[in-house]
């Protein structure tokens, strides 16, 4: 029986307040409107960014809210004007979408769409500013335009990527964020050369993907930096050749890496959100050509300090929301 055009009742994990346990509730999910897609979520992952915004460290509090942005699902129905996907298509929700028309989308140098770029403050849909989620007639806000902690969600058509239906949704769901973010930060932004050296700060899912990107680029040295040595063995599978635990040294980790590499690595990827790690990632790259890429999400009021001489010595600092 088709549910197109109808309100769907389903379960969702709702964040009612910052830092309070999520509550599994029966909610209503309205049909998709113009340029929108309703997706049945089959698998969703938990990214640390979800935890970060659940704690309200990164934005003005906006609750109740359905978090989640790393998932795989199947299109249930589409709204007016949608031609890119149709019911039955397997898709990945994407938190930074593409309208395909703005200067960013038309540029090979950027994926920061003017219409669909990351906006953590927006709780409604672009079409009318309203939410498609509700409970007992009261709205529940969206998150990153994806809200995958729900059995059904509604997203802008520019925020779904159609995938091969044979791809296992429980595996490829991580391509919605962690894998593509870390891998892309290395391959598309840092761009290490064959035989080069790369330092990866933080060996969680994003960091492992960043290391894999360095391996694919055929870097000769991939140095994993983490405070948890239990992560080191697993990281070898993703290309890490050596490791540094900052707690094992009585000097700044950037000094340790500089000494290990004869002046610094060619590229570094920071995947922690720690401003201390961001400074270390920047200051550990080689002068003259080193590139540091920041991926981790800091707290809203964070800032970090580094001496301008590092820029004058021709180090480059870049950032990326997703690769």
UniProtKB/TrEMBL annotation:
Sequence ranges assigned to domain Alcohol dehydrogenase-like C-terminal in this UniProt record? 205-321
Q: Where is the Alcohol dehydrogenase-like N-terminal domain?
A: 34-164
Q: Could you say which cofactors this protein requires?
A: Zn(2+)
Does the record carry Oxidoreductase as a key word?
yes
For this UniProt record, give its keywords in alphabetical order, as a comma-separated list. Answer: Metal-binding, Oxidoreductase, Zinc
Offer one Pfam family short name for this entry. Answer: ADH_zinc_N
What PROSITE patterns would the database entry show? ADH_ZINC (PS00059)
Family per similarity comment? Belongs to the zinc-containing alcohol dehydrogenase family.
PANTHER family named among the record's database cross-references:
ALCOHOL DEHYDROGENASE (PTHR43880), ALCOHOL DEHYDROGENASE CLASS-P (PTHR43880:SF26)
Q: How does it assemble?
A: Homodimer.
* Record protein name field: Alcohol dehydrogenase class-P isoform X4
Its taxonomic path starts at: Eukaryota, Viridiplantae, Streptophyta, Embryophyta, Tracheophyta
């Amino acid at each position: 029986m088709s549910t197109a055009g109808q309100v769907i009742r389903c379960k969702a994990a709702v964040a009612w307040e910052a830092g309070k346990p999520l509550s599994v509730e029966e909610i209503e999910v309205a049909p998709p409107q113009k340029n929108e897609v309703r997706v049945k979520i089959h698998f969703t992952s938990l990214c640390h960014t979800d935890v970060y915004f659940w704690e309200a460290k990164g934005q003005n509090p906006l609750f109740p809210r359905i978090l989640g942005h790393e998932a795989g699902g199947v299109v249930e129905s589409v709204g007016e004007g949608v031609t890119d996907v149709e019911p039955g298509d397997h898709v990945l929700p994407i938190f930074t979408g593409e309208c395909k028309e703005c200067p960013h989308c038309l540029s090979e140098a950027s994926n920061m769409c003017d219409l669909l770029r990351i906006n953590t403050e927006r709780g409604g849909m672009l079409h009318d500013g309203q939410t498609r989620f509700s409970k007992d007639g009261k709205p529940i806000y969206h998150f990153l335009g994806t809200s995958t902690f729900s059995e059904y969600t509604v997203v802008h058509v520019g925020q779904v990527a159609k995938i091969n239906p044979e791809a296992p949704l429980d595996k490829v769901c991580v391509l919605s964020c962690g894998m593509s973010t870390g891998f892309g930060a290395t391959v598309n932004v840092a761009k290490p050369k064959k035989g080069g050296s790369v330092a990866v700060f933080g060996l969680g899912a994003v960091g492992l993907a960043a290391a894999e990107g360095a391996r694919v680029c055929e870097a000769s040295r991939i140095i994993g930096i983490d405070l948890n040595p239990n992560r080191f063995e697993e990281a070898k599978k993703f290309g890490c050749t050596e490791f540094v635990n900052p707690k094992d040294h009585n000097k700044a980790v950037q000094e340790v890496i500089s000494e290990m590499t004869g002046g610094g690595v060619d590229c570094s990827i920071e995947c922690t959100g720690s401003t201390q790690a961001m400074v270390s990632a920047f200051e550990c790259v080689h002068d003259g050509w080193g590139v540091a890429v920041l991926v981790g999400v800091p707290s809203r009021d964070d800032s970090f300090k580094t001496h301008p001489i590092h820029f004058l010595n021709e180090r480059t600092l870049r950032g990326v929301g997703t690769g």
